[in-house]
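User: Okay, second chain of the day. Same drill as before: sequence in, structure tokens out.
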Amino acid sequence: MPFDVSWREGRGVRNIQTQLLGLGALCSLIGAPALAHHSFAAEFDRLKPVTFQGTITKIEWQNPHTRLYLRVRNQTGIVSQWELELASPNSLMRAGWTRHSVQIGDKITVKGFQAKDGNPLANAAQIFAADGRKILSEQSSADAPASN
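Assistant: Same drill. Structure tokens below.
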């Protein structure tokens, strides 16, 4: 059996290095979504319950969490933008949601828990339509604790 000269010339080693590099890149792409996810307690504070009304300005229906963005006017008339984190699209669909459950321009009331750092970010535990109809309940809002 003849000796394979490609190993002597380094081509075999380069081939293995290329394969390992490709495998490493693939693993990093697959693992990235897992690193992006977090627990409720990592970002939100159950001791900071919030309730407010606002108008939906943007909807992001993507993993790992669906996000709603609201324009909220406080008691003094100052307008701020809030970001709401909801469950994953899959979890919301199992709870009966569709992409049409809420729309840009809808006025909603939110009960949830504010981010630990005090930013206008909340995990939505409950969402109510302008007519009082419950759109989201604790059972479909990621891993947030039940609100009282």
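Residues 11-36 form the longest helix (26 residues).

User: Thanks, on to the next one.
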